[in-house]
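Before a colleague's protein record goes any further, I have to sign it off. Thanks in advance; the entry in question is below:
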Amino acid sequence: MHQPNRRAAVFAVLALAAGALAACGANDDNGGGGDGTASGDSTGSGSAATIALLLPESATARYEAFDRPLFEAKVADLCPDCTINYFNADQDETKQAEQVDTAISQNVDVMVLDPVNGASAASLVADAQAAEIPVIAYDRFIEGADYYTSFDNEKVGELQGQALVDAVGGAGDVLMLNGSPDDPNAAQFKSGAHSVIDASELTVIGEYDNPDWSPDNAQAWTTDQLDTIDPASLAGVYAANDGQAGGVIAALTGAGLAADALPPVTGQDAELAAIQRIVAGEQYMTIYKPIKGEAEGAAEMAIAIVNGEEVADTTDFQGVPSLILDPIVVTADNVGDTVVADDFWTVDDICTDEYADACTAAGLS
């Protein structure tokens, strides 16, 4: 359960501490492989505030390429004297728990936590709050967090499911590869996708909840499924993210399907490799989540907290004040109007020599 009385007490302490803050500002990138060290004032008092940013892993391209730098840049803009203590758990729950303990011992002013395991992370939140450190749950929901910022995850699954239904255009057999059972977002993606697929003419003939979202697991599982069915008879594949989509496509091509004979495969995260596969006609779609809004929203929340200010423009999500953003479907038809228009990826990023002809056909230049 959310703990409003505790949060009120925390904010009362922070409001008093805010008077001692002459400035709140700059990000200091510790760059130390996630050991939580950073130069500058890391005591959480005096002339600068300290923010702990804890991300779950680096195998998914978005975290190091987008979430971290966007968050750090916004903090630097809003609070040039602030310090960011950065940690990455490398998909290890025990390591993340140790990192939370380290951040608490550093007496940080606020913690921005993207959990490896959302359910078990509730205890990490409780530990931080007991030390009077407010917690912003980032991207993945944590029960009892003070704030939460993410995307409408049910809608992500619904959009993926609807795209697959539309691409198949009728009845057919499909495979489903969901995210990690430890990831609360994965359950929401799965629920949203099933709500559409189960109401359609599609038949799910095999389904897999993939530990760690592993592309290698996705490839191996799909290869096993293709040993029992004719790959050419498969109408489509629901893959919950782009990493798994890459594994699925590798399995399909490994089973003898040519690129132009691949069934529609979904994805999520708008990874560069996925955008290139979409342009080339190998992957049908991905979900683009404008991470800039999520990362900057978390930074704005953090700075409001260290200033003892009210966090504005939130909505309620399971009892936690939240910033919930909308996802966007990307297909070959709108790459230029979405990820390119937002400078998420440039045409030069996408249109390497291997994809030059496909880019020309897609109108990317």
